[in-house]
Amino acid sequence: MTVQKGKRMTISIQEHMAINVCPGPIRPIRQISSYFPRLSPTSSLSDSLSPNQAGFPSTTCPAGGAALAAGGGLLSPVSPGLAGGGGTLSLLSSVDTSVEIDSGDSDDNTSLGTLEFDLLYESASSSLHCTILRAKGLKSMDFNGLADPYVKLHLLPGACKANKLKTKIVKNNLNPVWNETLTYCGITEEDMSRKTLRVTVCDEDKLTHNEFIGELRVALRRVKPDQPKHFNVCLEHPPPLASPTAMNSALRGISCYLREWENEQQQNLEERGRLLLCLQFLPPAPEGGDVLPEMKERFKGGLCVGVRRCAHLAAMDVNGFSDPYVKTYLKPDLKKKSKHKTAVIKKTLNPEFNEEFFYEITFNELAGKTLEVTVWDYDLGKSNDFIGGVSLGCHSQGDALQHWIDCLKNKGTKVERWHTLTNDLPGSTFQE
């Protein structure tokens, strides 16, 4: 654009628009909240009354220059005392800092409360004890400003129904005291090394669904055997799930692949449940000795199998539970007389049987036998569902083999051990 001498400069509308949109320093858009700033803990009253109300630090101010030189830019607050003690806090940075620290409108900044509890793992009994002591400052969930809190426990990975434990409900209280101990049975050292305990605090609502207050997760490897560990920690929000709408097609594909991979790993780690067995080989009673009437069948000696209990069984019914019972076989069984069955316990995933079965057999014959124990879900009017099983004998592996060897070595001694049920038991008949 050229302007001749003596003529008035005129600018066309096209040139005017080009000037307005030309590249230059980008300044923040002023908002109505800029006129009503909230003081932050790092600002003072003199900062809010600063004559520089435009929201931008002055280039002649030494403190403002120091802030920009430090890389803070327009959003970097300048603390009093820097650069000679005459620093000021810009209005924009005051607003940003106050929103981050003082905002009480966001749920993310609302305190959910704290939970105090103890964990103790007893290696001798393979049990994990969680003592829920108390909670403080829980978030109010009801219209009266209070809550009806209770605590739930889950072991991850694992089916929620199978290992869910729950405390009592404390009515109308934000600082409840439970002093209640919840116990998991059949927890091995391997579980302690790879599993996580999820502790959830919820609010009970009779008319609607129970509401989530907060949770925390504890890696069980932090708990040493036979040493109680105390926890007093803040509750947290559950980990957020990625929204498919916020991803492009490539990220959605990667997310689906990772989700399928995690589900596959979860299924590989998922267990059918645990079984507590007690084995005892009784040697023949000496001749001429007094034998109690109830012990006459065991006079010649044999194997006594005690089915104590099961834990964390897989749910086989639509209600999320099972109706479990246990069968035992001593194979090979040519005469088919070695089958024993426990009673059926309705609607549970952690049944307790405490039943014993006796097999009259010599020690030499027992060395060539295999004890097969299976757990079933009873269904009325149709085939029973196979939950899992375990076989113990000289051809077994791992804990099953060690349990069998310990039984044969320690005649007359009861040997108890937990066993992980498997879905594919060799030689089993999976139909009832």
CATH topology of the largest domain: Immunoglobulin-like
Low-confidence stretches: 39-109, 428-432
Question: How many separate helices?
Answer: 9
Fraction of residues in H or I helices = 10-25%
H/E topology pattern: HHHHEEEHEEHEEEHEEEEEHEEHE
Strand percentage lies at 25-35%
In CATH, the architecture of the largest domain is Sandwich
**Total individual domains:** 3
* Helix-and-strand structural type: alpha+beta
- How many β-strand runs? 16
Q: Span between N and C termini? A: 97 Å
| Radius of gyration of CA atoms, rounded to a whole number | 35 Å
Tell me the name of the CATH class of the largest domain.
Answer: Mainly Beta
Care to describe what's here?
- By secondary structure, this protein is α+β, with helices and mostly antiparallel strands.
- The chain folds into three domains: 49-96, no CATH class; 109-234, C2 domain (Immunoglobulin-like); 274-420, C2 domain (Immunoglobulin-like), CATH 2.60.40.150.
- Helix content is 18%, strand content 28%.
- The protein has helices spanning 13-20, 45-48, 62-69, 91-102, 160-163, 189-194, 249-269, 363-366, 398-409; strands at residues 114-122, 127-136, 149-156, 165-166, 177-185, 196-203, 211-219, 229-234, 274-282, 302-311, 324-331, 340-341, 352-360, 370-377, 385-393, 415-420.
- The strands form four sheets. A four-stranded antiparallel beta sheet has the order 5-2-1-8, with no helix packed on it. The protein has a four-stranded antiparallel beta sheet with strand order 4-3-6-7. The protein has a four-stranded antiparallel beta sheet with strand order 13-10-9-16, with helices on one face.
- Strand 6 and strand 7 (211-219) form a beta hairpin.
